[in-house]
Every structure is written in structure tokens, then in C-alpha cells.
Amino acid sequence: MTIDLANQIVTGLLTGLVYSLMALGLSVIFGVVRVVNFAHGEMTALAMYAAWALFTWAELDPLLGLPLIALLLFVLGYVMQRGLIDAFVAKPEHMQFILLVAVAIIMVNGSLLVFGPDAHGIQVPYGFDTYEVGPLLVDKVRLLAATAALCISGLLMLFFRRTMTGKAIRACADNLVGARVIGLNVKRLYAVTFGIGAACVGAAGALLSMLIDVMPSSGPELTMLAFIIVIVGGLGSMGGALLGGILIGVSEVLAGYFLMPSMKGMFSFAILILILILRPQGLMGARK
Amino acid sequence: MSGHSSPMVNRRGFLAAGAAGAAVLGLGGRARPLHAAEPLKVGLLLPLSGSLAREGQSCKRGADVTPALLADMGMPVQLMIADTETNIDTARTRAEKLIADGAQVLVGAFDSAHTLAVAQVCEQRGVPLVINIAAAPNITEQGFKTVFRNFPTAPKLVTEGLALMKDVFKTTGTTPTKAVFLHNNDTFGTAMAGAVNKLFPTLDMPFPLVETIAYDGAARDLAVEVGKAKATGADLVLLVPHGDDCIRVIREMVKQRFEPKAVISPGSPGMYEAQFYKTLGKYSDYCMTNLPWINPKTAMSQALLKAFTKAYPDALFEMNIGYTFEAILIAADAAKRAGSTDPKAVLAALPVTSIAEHVMIGGPIVFDAKGQNTNTRSATIQNFGGKPLVVLPSEVAEAKPVFPAPGWQQRG
After folding, report:
1. Are B104 and B243 part of one and the same domain?
2. Chain B residues within an 8 Å CB radius of A215
3. In terms of domains, do B179 and B214 share one?
4. Does B256 contact A at CB distance below 8 Å?
5. Residues B201-243: pLDDT tens digits?
6. Count of domains forming chain B
């Protein structure tokens, strides 16, 4: 039983890391632009469809297609921010909410129109492979996806800490008036931030496409998952998104193993409610 | 199912078979034929989108080829197809709309919960409902006067499914030592689980059921469910999926190197569907499903196969198609015998239905006082080379059962 449980915890940990990358995009966007992207899961589903299309029609492995998909989503995010969302940044939150929910609905129905109602999955040639690590069996696809997610998250953190653009974005997040006073182009930086958040979504979508099937209804489910993770980790905190993803991934596995598998989704919501009661700012969020 | 050994028949042959069936029923010259311009308006409710879309689309493909075949038999029908969107409320509102739009009989709705919602609408409006596929027993236990089901109930599916397992073990000379039961926790899966847990102790099965694991069919992955099943040490997996969740179960079994002697469904959709073969390839082979199936050796099933293959050369000819065809056939037959398309007349004719010549394995289609066809019969189908073949009962078998199945890594 111990080995079986350890196997499941490793599985949850690896899956959680990929969830983290998706949630990281949401956290980055909210942390800087202060807009909650209610179309986040739908954008992830779009990225998964892109990965599926590249795999099906160009026989491109999702890991190799990842940079292209991330770039496409960066452009989509940049254009969305400049052309649509920017006009709502200073508007009341409920208007932002309605706008992005509308975008989400359009994306869901657009994908239903283009790809149909069926689930689309990617079966890479190594999709059934596992590594033996001592007594543990580690799923090769999950390991590759989690490693890629961890590397991308690390690169993103380096970008925000070490590059001028990253520091400028952080300046916008920390002190918007100050950023304007020193002459930063806030609109452009917001668009770049939204693009980066969307690129995270693109990368996460490419990786998730190897783990789960995508269908039009996947979008709202993934939005909900991303929200749970960032609220648990702390909205706007990059480290929190990582921690939240791992926590949700592992807790779902433990709930499924020790309680009932059909309760594992409910367990995530239980954690969310617990966090909202005990630590509303999230595990790594700053108290205001 | 292209591997059927019986000769194919053309539409003329199909007509002859239909005429022979009608003669057997004593309908010959007495039945008043419907006017050519007055086809029976059949409202067909199916989950064409949402999580059950694949099965719904499969049923629809069966329905698409049906009107031409029935027209040849002098039973014109006009299909009015509506999408339940795999949603109970939508199923109810679409049923209301179909009736408002002039549907004289409703057929559907694949999912038990959707069917129950539609049945309530039909009962209120006095419009007959012929169920193509839905197994929850309570549908025909509520005293509905307008509901007729040509599909076995979950307990019957399970009883026959478990009995067929014993036949498989007897035929192959190998018996598993213990089994784990995995099932989808939707309405269908829960009804099936209830039936398995209730009937298993009474059927003198040659192995114990060590654990029952319910899972959410919409879960993103089923790693923990399969891990938990593996931890039981069972060498037989009883699986009741409902849709593409069986793909995720088998995928995880391969990844976690869980190698039971076989994966057998006591009666559920999933493991004989095109997507299952396409996604899993060699890993889809040797999975068994015990369920009502198309009789490969009747003239009517061969005619349906021919029409279906012509319309959908790449689609799999399977149970959903056969039962959807038969449900429309039952409605059309009732209208023909009633000599009217009026819902009340069709409703009056349905309880005395007796169709000897049809496409599914089993006896003549007749309904008991509850509107349930008691002559359905299950078969064991096993996957070979990406297609399902009947392996039991032996009189209609196309291949011999293979048990235990070769290990995942021993497949070419």
C-alpha cells in the first residue's frame, strides 16, 4: 500500500506542477494588470486544441510545438489587452467580469463550432511509457510535462527579476503612479504582461494536451481549477501559484486514495473554502 | 463488424424479410397502409453534444439510415432530431418542443436521466416514448402508460453479464481469483453498480468482489482510481464506463502496469466504440463487454449493415445503431398496425407489439405490462484487431473468447 500511495503522490505532484504553470498565467495577469481573466481556462483549451491540431495535421510533438503555441497565445494575449481589455482596466470590476465572461463564452462556442463536441486527445508514441525509479513507477509523459512546466516557471521568475522589462512590469504592479512618473509606457507593459500570462497558458495547454483530453466544456473547468489554485496560493503571487498547483494536485490524489475517488474534485473546493476562512489572502499572498 | 460471415442482403431482401415478419404477425392484407404523404413524425432525442456526444452521434448515424429502410417496408417515417446536449433540463425542454412541433412519437434518449425527464413530458402530453437505450430500472417502474423500452434494465444487463462471465471462464478453462469493480458514478453507472452489488452475491460467481470504486466520468484523469484498483491485487477488472472514460482507465492501467487477466464490462458502452480502438490501438484488444448486441446472422441486420456501411464507410456498426433503428421500427410498426399516425392510436397499438424479425440478438420484441421488452438477450463481445466480435453465445459467435488476455507488453 505504501508504494501504491507513493506512486499516486508522485503522480499528483507532477500533474500539479503543470496545473501550476496554467495558474501562474492568471496570477501574473492579475498581479500586474489587476484584471481577473475569466477566460483563462478557455484560453488553455484553445492552446490544447492548437497542440492537438499540430500533432494531428503536422505530426508535431506537443513538447516541440510548445514554443509556437506559447508565441501564438502571447500574440493573442497582447492583442486582447491592447484592443479589448485596456479600455476596461479603469472601469468597475463587474464590467471587466462581464467582458471576460463574454470572451469565454465566445471561445467555448467557437471551439464547439470548429472542433465539434467530441473529446480530442493526443497519443504521443511514448504515451504509455513509465520509468522505474526504485519501487516507484513514474509516468514519462507526466515527468516530461512537469519538468517543462518547472523550467518555464523558473524562466518566468528570472525574467521578472533579472530583465529590464520584467523589472518595469513589477514597477507597474508595485506603484502605478510612480511607474507613470518615471515615464514607463504602462499600456504597452500591460499588454506585454497579458501576453506573458497568455504564453504561460499556451505552454501549459500544450503540456496538458498530453495528459488530458480537450473538449469545448474543458474551458470552464480549467478556469475553475486555475482560480482554486491561485486563491489557495495567493492571488498575484507567483510562488503561491506554484504551491497551490502542487497542493491541489497532491490533495486530489490523497482524497481519491483515502476517501472516495469521486470526491477528489470536491476536496479541492473544500480546501478553497478552508483557505478563504482561515487565510483569505492565500498561503503566500500578502495581507492588505 | 465487416467480418460477418452471413451474406449481405439488399434492400429488396430487407423488404422481403419485413414482409415475412409482417406475415408472421398476421398483418398481411388486414393492415391498413399509411398514406404515402403521411409519414409518422418521430421526434428523436439524443445527446449530440456534450460528454455523451460520441454515443449520441453513433445513435444518430443509425437513425439517419432508418427512414429509407422503413419506407421500403411500407412504414414511412419523418425524423425530427433534437440535441439533449447531455443535459437533463435540455432533454425535457427539447421533448416539449418536439411535441409542440408535431412529433407523434418520441424516441430516445440514450441516457437514463435524460430519458426519465423525457418520459415525464410524454406522460403528461399523452405522446408515446419508445426508448432506444437507457437501463435505469425505475424508468419502467413508475407506472408510466406511454413508455416502452426495447433495452434491458440494469439488473437484467448485470445478471446476464455476470452469467456470461461464467460461460467465458467455463469455455476457456481459466477462472480469476478476485475482482475489483470500477464504475462511472453517473445515473447509468450508479444503477449498474447497484445491480452488481445486489445481484453478485446471489449468482454464485466463482470469484469474490474485493472492492467497488466509483469515479467521476468527467474527472481530468483517473490515475488514482486505477492505482487504488491495482492495490487490491485483483486479477479481474469489472468496468462500467459511460463514454470515453474507459480510454482513460485502460491508459492508466498500461502506465501503472496493472495487468489483470481481463477487463470485462458487465454491460455498458465504451469499450466497443470507434474512439476506443482509435486511441488505444493494440491496448484496446481483448477487452470484453457483455451486452445486447446486433445479431450478425439475421437478414434485417445485414440489410441495416449494408445501408449503414454505404452511408458511413468509416464508422463502426455497433449496438447504438441497432437499438436506435429498432426503436424507430417499433414506432413505425405500431403506426402501421394502428393505420394512423395519431399519437393516441400509436399508443394503443404499442402494447401489443410483436416483431419477430429484427436486428438485435434476442426473441421477438414484445412489451410486458410495464412497457418493458423482456426478450432482450446479452452476448459477449471481445475486441480483436480494433473491432468487436461476438464470442458468446456460441450459436451466433464470430470468434472464440480469449481469456486470460495477453499482457500489455506482450502485444505485437
Report:
1. no
2. 51
3. yes
4. yes
5. 998 999 999 999 999 887 878 999 999 999 999 999 999 998 7
6. 2
Nearest to B279 among A11, A123, A265 (CB): A123
C-alpha cell at A133: 525509479
- Report the chain A residue with the minimal C-alpha distance to residue B183: A262
Question: Is B275 touching A (CB cutoff 8 A)?
Answer: yes
Q: Sort out which chain B residues have CB atoms less than 8 A from A253's CB and list them.
A: 223-224
Q: Could you tell me where the beta strands, DSSP code E, fall in B96-247?
A: 105-108, 129-131, 147-149, 179-184, 209-215, 236-240
Residues B360 and B267 in one domain: no
User: What are the tens digits of pLDDT across the range B357-406?
Assistant: 899 999 999 999 999 999 999 999 999 998 899 999 888 889 999 999 99
Per-residue cell: B383:
475486441
Residue B305 and residue B282 share a domain: no
Q: Which residues of A touch B231 (CB under 8 A)?
A: 1, 4
Residue B220 located in a structural domain: yes
Name the one residue in this structure whose C-alpha cell is 426508448: B131
Mark whether B258 and B184 lie in a shared domain. Answer: yes
Domain holding B246, by residue range, is: 155-293+379-410
Output the domain CATH number for residue B110.
3.40.50.2300
The answer to the question of residue B188 being in a domain is yes
Contact assessment for residue B242 and residue B218, using Cβ atoms and an 8 Å cutoff: no
Same domain, B175 and B280: yes
Question: The C-alpha cell of B344 is what?
Answer: 393516441
Residues of B in contact with A119 (CB under 8 A): 54, 244, 275
- Examine the domain organization and report whether B124 and B136 are in the same domain: yes
Q: Which of A128, A143, A208, A211 to mutate to test the interface with B (most CBs of B within 10 A)?
A: A128
Check CB contact under 8 Å for B228 and A128.
Answer: no
**Residue in the block written with cell 425542454:** B93
Smallest Cβ–Cβ distance between A253 and the set B215, B224, B248 belongs to: B224
B184 assigned to some structural domain: yes
Residue B237 φ/ψ, nearest 5 degrees: -110, 120
Q: Are B269 and B295 in contact (CB under 8 A)?
A: no
Cβ of residue B250 closer than 8 Å to a chain A Cβ = no
Is B288 in the same domain as B316? no
